[in-house]
């Protein structure tokens, strides 16, 4: 309940806002608040035919998620394809190829384009076909529909219409959004699983209106008529406003009565319902959204390279055209052999300008090889294959949930290797969202001996024995230790605690004082009874009995709540049954024997994130009306009555302690109500409840406010939010890889800080800069209530706090202790405003850790955007819930945890993993590899096309730029498709600089990505220069060898055919040898691809050369007849590749010799097997191979070790261990700091005994 | 069994204790190493904490699982067999293959200074002899190149030259004397060399019809513009600019025994100079020259096409016109040679050869030159020192590189796999950014 997760959905309601960039989720959300949804929908129950006519015309239930249909596929898919500028360019080239302007034959230009576009379209078609089949499967599901006269007939979903009455049976999905009329249960409830909507596995209770409960037979519907007025279709899954006019009554409807499409009926034999929204108007369909298209940094840079090459292309084309025009004008008239007296417009010396312009087009097509058509296809293909490897990685597979990692969009793989900042959600991401009731404070006494993971972890890292903690936690209470079970297994208590009883999920509470009914002997048994009763009654959980074992489990909306009910049961108050209007609890009677008591639920005041509390109003068997309320401590405190604060001080102390131990706390309270008071209030409340319209929620809040006062505090609960497996280790390694981790959580500050400690994002000795508005001054201003004044004061306060934060960091430069920024949502509201956000960012980037608490989903997205745009570095958002969707979509890469909670985050994400800890492998292994692969692949791609394209250009120069190529048309067209594509794909898919194990062993290697060492302009230009060099060598060497003398023993001279084929052979060899040199990882695949490509060229030459010369033209028998027995040809094919790669080799040798990079050295270490022969050295290096970081437990331990040393220096050799208790005091100190610092005075520093710094003015 | 396990556990814990914070994760390694390190000691296993051990723990949570891990740690053979079982049973959805896990056995070449040296050496050692051999081959080729376009033209002005060369009624004969510098072994090839003649001009290159020459379709002349048909019905055979501009200077060779004595005719073989594929496929023996502008002009003097180059004997099919085939293998560069014929005699050093040239081909309009070339060949072809020089240069360069790398090894030796060069072992100031 205390999980402040707002379920907000950023949806696709809005029109396409930007021309080039889809609107970011933030923009969408902002526009969402403009104007509420209308309330115009009218549904006539059982008269579905009415809705087909005007003015209604509601949509049918046919659902299509396909992008195309049979008719629109071609135009639409083609349009999509040619929206890519490159494709358009190639289409233009192909069109022009039909005219004589083209230097190539039309077929040789059109074929690759058709191939490229065809492949992409096939992919689209296949994906769409899959969607279509899925749709079909859903559309043809059957459901029972009322066909009149009380008869129900099976009908396909797609034929269901608005207004139809349907009967849905157990374990079936609802075909549309339904108004629930009745269920098989007499009280008209049903249980619904909403897994497909929000990923939550727990069941939800839905309840029909009292008036329609009796409609529980098929026959009842023959005369059933009603009119529903409700809101228009919208995306909000958790709201519904409407009313039902039935039997001349107007009944209010709420979300409780609405059954949403794609959720499933569970534990209920059947229900009846009326279709309100069908097909695309259903809430789930309205929510469907495609993730915004993202592009990686490398791709964006690649665009720049392409523009650059376009410029080069244009330049050389213009040069060529000018020369051509000039020579045509002045020289061609003398070239009688060209018949200049009988010209065509393309070579007309009298109109050289026109000829030149036409030539420009020719040249643009001709040198188009500089911009490879296949680059896009190759990259796409490579990324898809990379994604497959990510999906297939067993080490990112979670067998318990049977979920592998999924690359949902494949075009961001390389971005994974460039991440700088990780923005992480907390609940469900770092923690498992599994709550265990571990401690409680009742009537001012603390109970519970359980030790939290946080405490254990801290103790372990400080060298303490965690076993001692259990004693300590009791000893602290000043109570005697009962039945020390500590002596159990001595060897590894923390690994395998030996519980006497089997472990109950959600319950880790151990305290003999109140377990097994002994609580009656405690000083305040009545308070304890009330405490446990509140736990057992005040909730919305549903008991579920497993039919096979007879055990009872609880389905609750939040795991906290389930743990409460379980705790109550374990302590003797067993929640047995829930009916429409009551809760039955088995509790110990006055004599100790269990008795069943029924509590009539009169009202339920629901939990929401603004109220931060929930209450029930119940009437017990004695007729006493009770309000039970549980909620956040501050909220409850504000509502305590004068006589209700008896235990407040003691409880507050316990709450603080629990908070320090990383526990989630709730305060429990109750109030006795008089009948009259209740009746009066109930009227107000019912009125608010039946209101239709947007202000309903507010009215409800106001009504609740009226009764939730004068409460009596009973105690508080502490629930442990368990960290996910491997999270601390993963964070540690990510931090060592130089990644910054920010936690953005909806939790309150204390919890967030605790989790921060648990994950080692915060540690002792860190200077915490806490920015918040919870100051007395602010509170005073807030009480005065003028909104603008509050805002002004808040803004001032934040500005001041940011400034003093900066100041503090500047002052602290000489000591190592890092800073941590903790900021809450309220402050962020102001800090994220335009004029402050740069300050905030500057401060945040100077801090080692940043924790934002109490942030709304929108703020999560805003922070993400701030980091992304402010630092210009790549960000990764990771989360599991609907509230993380904004962050996930806004971040450069969104990762969804496909764990328990959510589909929504996963649906919005680019990658999904089952556990947070897989992020390590995803980034450090796959990210690193993909980054290097793609970076190398792209530069190599440009290299090979420059090499090839420039040889065309040089040859042109010798033909007076007339547009003639030395190569046969098909050589040129197949260059990128056949002879050079496979090696580059092998490079992009399989290349590994170091093995995955080494990647993980040396996390510092990851920094090559964020520092972008492999896609810098120097590197790109270096490769381009290499391409220019290779082209020069390949062209002029071949030319020199074949010109002007005979190249064979029999005196034959090289024609254009032979020269072209020889030169092309050289180019094919050069680019393939070059790729072989660039690789550092050869499996049989690389060998087959590289040498196979070369072999394929020869094969092609033979096969193509054997075709009739009208088709093969200049390639006819060129190889078998002229080249194969010419030693000159073979000598030159050996010479050119070696000469071409020589500078590359020299550079590589130089670099490796004088400036070796880390992966070079590690390769060498492995090559020499030093990691086996010198394990100590290897281990040392691995330990050192970390980025300087202040996050992660390694740094934490290091810090505490150095602390120890410092202390020893100060106090001599004492064995004093830094006290754990110093943490909270430190925090408090830190929290006060900014304000103190505001007065710009140089503070004195005093080294305190714990080694921390304290500022005194 | 349990005893062993406990021992292993104890050992493990000890290891953990030794190992400090960096390696807090449980050392286990259930996936076989791709680098064949499995055979190494226990130590190396324990050293593998880098692998996300947690992954393994997730499905090995129960005691059985972790004992498997521990068994493996002991290098137990049974552990290995259990491992295979595990691999088969655990992954329901994903299959473990070396391919999908990107663990295929691979060759990971690392260029060590020693290897770099060896490679440079080897390349050098191979290149230098190749260079010497090819250079020698080129050197041994004997060649006579004689430019004759100027000496065969009495007119000095351009206009005169052009009108002279275009006038068919004037005698174009011209005698040239060549001296054999060195013994030229049979066969001696006779070439003519033109320059500034753009056979590679696109307009020129395209102006041909393989279909027609091949005999597939006599009327397929669309590509031959501007030399396509004489009238609508009569295609020119062979059509196109290339055929029309066929080179037509002729040479007759004779030995000059004494300065004034009669020349002894030296026969020049003009068959077998074209490629077989041309003779057999590209130029049909069923297609005869027809309406060929150069022929028409010669006989009737009336044609809308001017005189281009050589005429073709209409009685001979295209497959017999080898000079045409040679000409039609268009040259890639504006300066080119074409095979004219073969002298199947040895020419001895000092012999004087008189060449009687019919200087009729117009190279004067575009200020080109004409050369007569007599050349022997080596196994590599003509006199072309490029290949030899290139190989020699490359060889020398490679040797030099090898020496430099040896030198560098001595002067600034860098320990291979030197840990001190790792970025984290260096001061930030000396870091080199790439």
Automatic annotation (TrEMBL), chain A:
Domain annotation P-type ATPase C-terminal: ranges: 906-1156
GO BP terms in the entry: phospholipid translocation
Chief localization: membrane
Ranges annotated as biased composition (Polar residues): 1213-1224
UniProt entry tagged with the keyword Transmembrane: yes
Membrane topology: Multi-pass membrane protein
Active site as annotated: 425
Record-listed Mg(2+) binding positions: 425, 427, 880, 884
Family to which this protein belongs: Belongs to the cation transport ATPase (P-type) (TC 3.A.3) family. Type IV subfamily.
Stated name of the protein: Phospholipid-transporting ATPase
Organismal lineage: Eukaryota, Viridiplantae, Streptophyta, Embryophyta, Bryophyta
Automatic annotation (TrEMBL), chain B:
Keyword Magnesium part of the UniProt annotation: no
Protein keywords: Membrane, Transmembrane, Transmembrane helix
Gene Ontology cellular component terms for the protein in this record: endoplasmic reticulum; Golgi apparatus; plasma membrane
Keyword Metal-binding: no
Membrane protein topology class: Multi-pass membrane protein
Pfam family, one: CDC50
Transmembrane segments: 115-137, 390-410
Ranges of biased composition (kind: Polar residues): 38-59
Family, per entry: Belongs to the CDC50/LEM3 family.
Designated name of the protein: ALA-interacting subunit
């Amino acid at each position: 309940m205390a999980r402040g997760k707002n379920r907000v959905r950023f949806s696709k309601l809005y029109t396409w806002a930007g021309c080039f960039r889809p609107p970011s989720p933030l923009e969408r959300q902002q526009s969402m608040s403009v104007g509420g949804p209308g309330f115009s929908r009218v549904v006539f129950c059982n008269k579905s035919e009415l809705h087909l006519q005007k003015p209604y015309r509601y949509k049918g239930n046919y659902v299509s998620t396909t992008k195309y249909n049979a008719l629109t596929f071609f135009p639409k898919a083609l349009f999509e394809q040619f929206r890519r500028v490159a494709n358009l360019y190639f289409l233009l080239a192909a069109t022009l190829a039909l005219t004589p302007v083209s230097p190539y034959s039309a077929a040789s230009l059109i074929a690759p384009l058709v191939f490229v576009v065809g492949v992409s379209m096939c992919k689209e078609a296949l994906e769409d076909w899959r969607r279509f089949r899925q749709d079909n499967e859903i559309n043809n599901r059957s459901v029972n529909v009322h066909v009149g006269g009380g008869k129900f007939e099976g009908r396909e979903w797609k034929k269901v219409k608005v207004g139809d009455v349907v009967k849905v049976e157990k374990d079936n999905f609802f075909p549309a959004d339904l108004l629930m009329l009745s269920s098989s249960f007499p009280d008209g409830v049903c249980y619904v699983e909403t897994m497909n909507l929000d990923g939550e596995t727990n069941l939800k209770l839905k309840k029909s209106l009292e008036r329609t409960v009796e409609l529980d037979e098929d026959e009842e519907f023959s005369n059933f008529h009603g009119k529903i007025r409700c809101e228009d279709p919208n995306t909000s899954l958790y709201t519904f406003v409407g009313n039902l006019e039935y039997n001349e009554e107007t009944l209010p409807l709420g979300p409780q009565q609405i059954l949403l499409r794609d959720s499933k009926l569970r534990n209920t034999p059947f229900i009846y319902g009326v279709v309100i929204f069908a097909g695309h108007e259903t809430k789930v369909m309205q929510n469907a959204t495609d993730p915004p298209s993202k592009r990686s940094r490398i791709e964006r840079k690649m665009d720049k390279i392409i523009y650059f090459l376009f410029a080069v292309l244009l330049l050389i084309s213009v040069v060529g055209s000018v020369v051509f025009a000039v020579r045509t004008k002045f020289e061609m008239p003398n070239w009688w052999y060209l018949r200049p007296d009988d010209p065509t417009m393309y070579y007309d010396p009298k109109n050289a300008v026109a000829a030149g312009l036409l030539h420009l087009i020719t040249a643009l097509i001709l040198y188009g090889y500089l911009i490879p058509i296949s680059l896009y296809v190759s990259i796409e293909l490579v990324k898809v294959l990379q994604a497959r490897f990510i999906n297939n990685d067993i080490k990112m597979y979670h067998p318990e949930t049977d979920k592998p990692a999924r690359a949902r969009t494949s075009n961001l793989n390389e971005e994974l290797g460039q991440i700088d900042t990780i923005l992480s959600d907390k609940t469900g991401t770092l923690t498992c969202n599994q709550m265990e009731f571990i401690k409680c404070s009742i009537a001012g006494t603390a109970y519970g001996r359980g030790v939290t993971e946080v405490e254990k972890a801290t103790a372990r890292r400080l060298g303490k024995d965690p076993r001692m903690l259990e004693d300590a936690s009791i000893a602290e209470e000043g109570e005697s230790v009962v039945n020390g079970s500590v002596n159990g297994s001595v060897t590894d208590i923390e690994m395998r605690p030996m519980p006497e009883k089997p472990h109950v999920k959600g319950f880790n509470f151990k305290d003999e004082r109140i377990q097994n009914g002994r609580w009656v002997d405690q000083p305040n048994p009545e308070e304890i009874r009330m405490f446990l009763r509140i736990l057992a009654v005040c909730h919305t959980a549903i008991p579920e009995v497993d039919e096979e074992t007879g055990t009872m489990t609880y389905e609750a909306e939040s795991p906290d709540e389930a743990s409460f009910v379980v705790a109550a049961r374990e302590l003797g108050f067993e929640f047995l049954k829930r009916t429409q209007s009551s809760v039955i609890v088995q509790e110990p009677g006055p004599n100790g024997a269990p008795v069943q008591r029924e509590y009539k639920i009169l009202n339920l005041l629901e939990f929401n994130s603004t109220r931060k509390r929930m209450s029930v109003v119940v009437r017990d068997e004695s007729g006493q009306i009770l309000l039970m309320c549980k909620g956040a401590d501050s909220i409850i405190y504000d509502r305590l009555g004068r006589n209700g604060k008896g235990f407040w001080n003691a409880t507050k102390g316990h709450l603080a302690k629990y908070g320090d131990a990383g526990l989630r706390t709730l305060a429990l309270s109750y109030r006795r109500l008089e009948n009259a008071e209740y009746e009066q209030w109930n009227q107000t409340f019912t009125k608010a409840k039946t209101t239709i319209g947007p202000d309903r929620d507010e009215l409800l809040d106001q009504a609740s406010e009226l009764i939730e006062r004068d409460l009596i505090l009973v105690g508080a609960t502490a629930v442990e939010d368990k960290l996910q497996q491997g999270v601390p280790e993963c964070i540690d390694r990510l931090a060592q890889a130089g990644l910054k981790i920010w936690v953005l959580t909806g939790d309150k500050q204390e919890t967030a800080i605790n989790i921060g400690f648990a994950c080692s994002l915060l540690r002792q000795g860190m200077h915490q800069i806490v920015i918040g508005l919870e100051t007395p001054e602010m509170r005073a201003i807030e009480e005065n209530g003028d909104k603008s004044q509050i805002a002004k004061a808040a803004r001032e306060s934040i500005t001041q706090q940011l400034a003093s934060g900066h100041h503090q960091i500047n002052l602290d430069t000489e000591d190592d202790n890092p800073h941590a920024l903790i900021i809450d949502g309220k402050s962020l509201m102001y800090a994220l405003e335009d004029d402050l956000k740069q300050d905030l960012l500057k401060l945040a980037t100077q801090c080692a850790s940043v924790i934002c608490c109490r942030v709304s989903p929108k703020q999560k997205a805003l922070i993400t955007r701030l980091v992304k745009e402010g630092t210009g570095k790549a960000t990764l958002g990771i989360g599991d819930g609907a509230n993380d969707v904004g962050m996930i979509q806004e971040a450069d890469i969104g990762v969804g945890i496909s764990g328990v909670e959510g589909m929504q985050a996963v649906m919005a994400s680019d990658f999904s993993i089952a556990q947070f800890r897989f992020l390590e492998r995803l980034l450090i292994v796959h990210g690193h590899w993909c980054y290097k692969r793609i970076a190398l692949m792209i530069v190599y791609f440009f290299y090979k096309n420059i090499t090839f394209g420039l040889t065309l250009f040089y040859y042109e120069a010798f033909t007076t730029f007339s547009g003639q190529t030395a190569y046969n048309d098909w050589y040129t067209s197949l260059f990128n498709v056949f002879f050079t594509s496979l090696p580059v794909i092998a490079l992009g898919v399989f290349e590994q600089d170091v093995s995955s194990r080494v990647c993980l062993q040396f996390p510092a290697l990851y920094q090559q990505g964020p520092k972008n060492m492999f896609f810098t302009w120097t590197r790109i230009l270096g490769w381009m220069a290499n391409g220019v060099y290779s082209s020069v060598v390949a062209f002029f060497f071949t030319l020199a060898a074949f010109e002007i003398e005979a190249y064979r023993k029999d005196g034959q001279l090289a024609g254009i055919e032979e020269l072209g084929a020889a030169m092309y052979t050289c180019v094919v060899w050069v680019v393939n040898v070059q790729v072989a040199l660039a690789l550092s990882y050869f499996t049989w695949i690389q060998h087959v691809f590289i040498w196979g490509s070369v072999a394929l060229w020869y094969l092609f030459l033979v096969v193509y050369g054997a075709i009739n010369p009208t088709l093969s033209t200049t390639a006819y028998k060129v190889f078998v007849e002229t080249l194969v027995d010419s030693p000159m040809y073979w000598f030159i094919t050996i010479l050119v590749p070696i000469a071409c790669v020589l500078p590359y080799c020299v550079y590589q040798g130089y670099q490796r010799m004088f400036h070796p990079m880390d992966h070079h050295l590690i390769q060498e270490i492995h090559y020499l097997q030093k990691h086996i022969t010198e394990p100590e050295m290897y281990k040392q290096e691995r330990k050192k191979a970390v980025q300087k970081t202040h996050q992660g437990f390694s740094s934490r331990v290091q810090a505490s070790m150095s602390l120890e040393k410092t202390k020893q220096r100060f106090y001599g050799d004492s064995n004093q261990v830094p006290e754990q208790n110093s943490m909270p005091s430190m925090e408090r100190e830190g929290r006060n700091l900014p304000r103190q610092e505001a007065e710009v005075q140089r503070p004195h520093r005093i080294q305190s005994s714990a080694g921390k710094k304290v500022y005194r003015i | 069994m349990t005893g062993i396990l406990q021992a292993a556990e104890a050992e493990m814990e000890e290891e953990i204790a030794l190992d400090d914070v960096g390696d807090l994760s449980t050392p286990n390694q259930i996936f076989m190493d791709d680098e064949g390190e499995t055979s190494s000691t226990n130590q190396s296993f324990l050293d593998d904490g880098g692998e996300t051990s947690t992954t393994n723990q997730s499905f090995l949570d129960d005691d059985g699982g972790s004992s498997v891990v521990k068994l493996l740690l002991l290098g137990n053979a049974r552990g290995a067999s259990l491992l295979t079982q595990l691999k088969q049973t655990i992954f329901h959805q994903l299959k473990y293959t070396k391919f999908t896990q990107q663990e295929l056995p691979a060759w990971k070449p690392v260029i060590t200074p020693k290897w770099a040296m060896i490679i440079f050496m080897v390349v050098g050692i191979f290149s230098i002899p190749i260079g010497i051999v090819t250079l020698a081959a080129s050197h041994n080729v004997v060649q006579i190149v004689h430019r004759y376009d100027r000496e065969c033209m009495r007119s000095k002005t351009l206009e005169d030259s052009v009108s002279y060369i275009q006038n068919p009624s004037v005698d174009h004969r011209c005698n040239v004397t060549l001296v054999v510098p060195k013994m030229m072994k049979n066969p001696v090839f006779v070439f003519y060399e033109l320059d500034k003649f753009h056979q590679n001009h696109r307009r020129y290159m395209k102006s041909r019809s393989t279909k027609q020459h091949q005999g597939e379709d006599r009327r397929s002349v669309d590509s031959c513009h501007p030399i396509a048909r004489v009238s609508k019905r009569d295609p020119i055979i062979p059509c196109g600019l290339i055929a029309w501009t066929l080179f037509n200077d002729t040479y007759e060779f004779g030995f000059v025994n004494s300065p004034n004595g009669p020349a002894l005719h030296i026969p020049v073989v003009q068959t077998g100079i074209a490629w077989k594929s041309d003779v057999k496929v590209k130029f049909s023996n069923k297609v005869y020259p027809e309406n060929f502008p150069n022929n028409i002009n010669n006989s009737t003097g009336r044609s809308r096409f001017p005189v281009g180059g050589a005429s073709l004997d209409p009685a001979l099919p295209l497959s017999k016109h080898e000079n045409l085939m040679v000409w039609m293998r268009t040259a890639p560069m504006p300066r080119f040679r074409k095979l004219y014929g073969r002298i199947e005699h040895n020419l001895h050093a000092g012999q004087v050869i008189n060449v009687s040239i019919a200087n009729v081909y117009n190279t004067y309009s575009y200020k080109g030159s004409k050369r007569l070339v007599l050349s022997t060949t080596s196994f590599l072809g003509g006199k072309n020192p490029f290949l030899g020089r290139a190989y020699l240069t490359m060889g020398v360069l490679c040797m030099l590189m090898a020496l430099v790398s040896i030198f560098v090894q001595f002067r600034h030796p860098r320990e291979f796999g030197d840990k001190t060069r790792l970025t984290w072992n260096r001061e930030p100031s000396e870091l080199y950014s790439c």
